[in-house]
Amino acid sequence: MPRPIPKWYKVDNAAKIVPSTTKGADTRVFRITCVLKEEVDGPILQLALDRTVREFPYFNSILRKGLFWYYLDSSNIKAVSHEENKPPCSAIYFPGRRNLLYRVVYHGCRINLEMFHVLTDGTGAMEFLKAIVTNYLKIRYDYDDDLVLPVRASIRNKETDAFTKFYEKASGKPQENKRAPKRAYHLQGERDENLQVHLLEGTVSTSAFLEEARARHATIAIFATALYMEAIIKEMTQREKKLPVVLSVPVNLRNYFPSETTRNFFGVINVAFYPEHYDGNLQTIIDEVSASFDRQLKDDQVALTMQGYSKLEHNLAVKFVPCIIKDLVISMANDRIQRGITGTVSNVGKVTMPDILVPHIDKFSCFMAAPDAQICISSFGDKLVFGIASAFRTHNVMMNFFRSLTDMGIEVELATNDFDAQDDIGDEFAAQKAREDLLLRQSVRDAGKASDSSQK
């Protein structure tokens, strides 16, 4: 049987800056987790992964550096699932190394998919994980295909570069989020000396959170963004309150353009609030956040956001600049942009699975490595999960966030991979201890450090 012809893919426009901006704790790796109601069977998970990879061949690519741009090259490297043995969101991309840009690991009841952002965004990765979990449960319980197989996009539609498909030269109309402040407040705290990511997972009732949001005329995304802003302001000194709090909010462009791509297809809006406007009333922040969402999420503004990502590729002056120079310029430009960003709130949204599989699943959660901190929101049934990935060893801001929820009567269950943070969580929350820790036992984290050291 003849071998398939190798295939390569242009890196999509949202991903072009990723290799150049990967450094320190900001590995540009995100983790999406499915928590089952029983411990994961490793051999079955491998069988499920083998099946799923055939449905998503694009993900089995390696990243190569060309003369002018990075590109993805198809590979026949076998994806192998295994027990967790590294710190969460550890680096996946290593320049010059030929390896896959994702990993599938498990620990206890958790199936974790970690991906390098050059491959896809949260929506695309979630589709991949849902397919893995579906195949896993089909094998585990011998379910018939007709009972569980959802209607999925074709391989061709999954591999579509939606930025190129929907690109058209933008008009001269100004883009709202271009007016974001050049300098914003930055979170303070003790950073991890080993540049490892600290995770915190907060689980609440979806219906209870939604009820509180609707009572304030807000969506889940707006309510969470405003709560996070208030939590940050509570940690700021009077002098620091002269700076705005600016949160970056990714926007799923599939909600605005008819696309089933599992590649990157998102834009970003920046939402700013000046602490001097805060009068102690959360509704004041909600109103400003809501107005900013409304301005920036109009169809014409979202289209401009999408076109903005495509300008780089279509600019002839940039197209033929050598990649080594692009890396330097993009890295410097990203550093400048980050000065105007306090943090990120990403709403992955509601996760659905075939009805017959729902009783086997507890919840889904998401985490994204970040230079400071990022919140990822996801819901499954009546479990709404806030996944926080932070470069800091302490979680003061998020404690403010969750205290606000408990003050509203919303019960919060917290878990962490950071044993030092158990004291920070304290008795005011229903904290999961080492018996059912979030991702890693301490011995596993130490093993990961030893493994990393041995590779250097």
What does the average pLDDT come to? Answer: 84
Q: Could you tell me the radius of gyration in angstroms?
A: 21 Å
Strand order of the largest sheet: 10-9-11-13-14-8-15-16
Assign the CATH architecture of the largest domain. Answer: 2-Layer Sandwich
Strand content: 15-25%
Overall helicity: 25-40%
Describe the structure.
This protein is α+β, with helices and mostly antiparallel strands and 456 residues long. The protein is built from 14 helices and 16 strands. The protein has helices spanning 42-55, 122-141, 145-148, 155-158, 162-165, 206-215, 220-233, 282-296, 299-314, 316-319, 323-338, 396-407, 422-425, 442-455, and strands spanning 8-10, 29-36, 61-65, 70-74, 82-83, 102-107, 110-116, 198-205, 245-252, 266-273, 343-350, 361-368, 373-380, 383-390, 413-416, 430-431. The protein has an eight-stranded mixed β-sheet with strand order 10-9-11-13-14-8-15-16. Strand 13 (373-380) and strand 14 form a beta hairpin. Helix 1 packs across helix 2, helix 7 crosses helix 8 and helix 7 (220-233) packs across helix 12 (396-407). The model is unreliable at 430-456 (pLDDT under 50).
